[in-house]
């Protein structure tokens, strides 16, 4: 091997060493960045402004990925956390959603009252009514005077259930045990003032009060002409 060939080999070796050194440097930088940034996690960013007290839904947010160490401790990383929540203040477009931006939606809306009545466990929708459900309330009444027909009436439509209590034994007189329920469930509703009066009246004076569970998204409107039923008028 002559001197020119030796110089060529030496230069080649130096090039390889330089390339290995550069590669090692890149790996070092990458490892350093990864050690500082850490793993990425899911976060949620506002697509547009959200006004205070507005109910929240998944469509208002955009899913993003960012380093876990850059998120604050109260950052929301699961959209299930917004279920039943409202904005506590104006939420700005592009902001990251945080738990201190949201609060539980109030149980009562403006003009509503909280009213609880006892519902016969057999005539209610046993085991199927839960908080948040919507129901129509039916009541059956005896004729006002002798000879008047009995009636079934729709007392309240689209009543919002706030809470369903535990099955409770009723303390009845012996004379009532053959015709009335012995167990009932306390159910709490959010109602307007007039609907609160209607449902309270029905609990006190109706022979039976029944709840009809309404499917989510269904039209719960009952025309006035269909709110009272008499067997003799059924065709």
Protein model, in words:
This protein has 235 residues and is α+β, with helices and mostly antiparallel strands. It has two domains: 65 residues, Antifreeze-like/N-acetylneuraminic acid synthase C-terminal domain (Type Iii Antifreeze Protein Isoform Hplc 12, Alpha-Beta Complex); 121 residues, no CATH class. 20% of the residues lie in helices and 30% in strands. The chain is built from two helices and eleven strands; from the N terminus they run αβββββββββαββ. The strands form three sheets. Strands 5, 6, 7, 8, 9, 10 and 11 form a seven-stranded antiparallel sheet that branches. The chain has a two-stranded antiparallel sheet with strand order 1-2. A two-stranded antiparallel sheet has the order 3-4. The chain is rod-shaped, with a radius of gyration of 34 Å. The N and C termini lie far apart (116 Å).
List the helices and strands and how they pair.
Blueprint lengths: L2 H35 L2 E7 L14 E7 L17 E3 L14 E3 L8 E8 L13 E8 L9 E14 L3 E2 L13 E9 L1 H13 L2 E7 L13 E2 L6
Antiparallel strand pairs: 1-2, 3-4, 5-9, 6-7, 6-10, 7-9, 7-11, 8-9
């Amino acid at each position: 091997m002559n001197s020119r060939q030796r110089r060529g080999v030496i230069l080649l070796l130096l090039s390889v060493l330089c390339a290995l050194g550069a590669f090692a440097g890149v790996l070092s930088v990458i490892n350093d960045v990864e050690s500082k940034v850490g793993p990425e996690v899911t976060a949620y960013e506002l697509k547009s402004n959200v006004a205070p007290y507005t109910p929240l839904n998944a469509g208002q947010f955009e899913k993003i990925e960012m380093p876990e160490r850059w998120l604050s401790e109260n950052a929301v990383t699961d959209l299930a956390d917004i279920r039943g929540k409202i904005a506590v203040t104006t939420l700005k477009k592009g902001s990251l959603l945080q738990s201190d931006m949201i609060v539980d939606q109030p149980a009562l809306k403006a003009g509503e009252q909280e009213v609880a009545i006892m519902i016969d466990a057999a005539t209610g929708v046993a085991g199927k009514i839960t908080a948040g459900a919507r129901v129509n309330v039916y009541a059956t009444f005896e004729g006002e005077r002798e000879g008047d027909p009995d009636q079934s009436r729709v007392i309240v439509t689209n009543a919002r259930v706030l809470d369903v209590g535990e099955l409770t034994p009723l303390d009845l007189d012996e004379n009532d045990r053959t015709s009335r329920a012995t167990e009932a469930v306390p159910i709490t509703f959010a109602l307007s003032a007039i609907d609160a009066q209607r449902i309270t009246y029905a609990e006190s004076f109706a022979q039976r009060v029944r709840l009809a569970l309404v499917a989510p998204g269904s039209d719960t409107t009952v025309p006035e002409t269909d709110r009272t039923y008499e067997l003799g008028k059924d065709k």
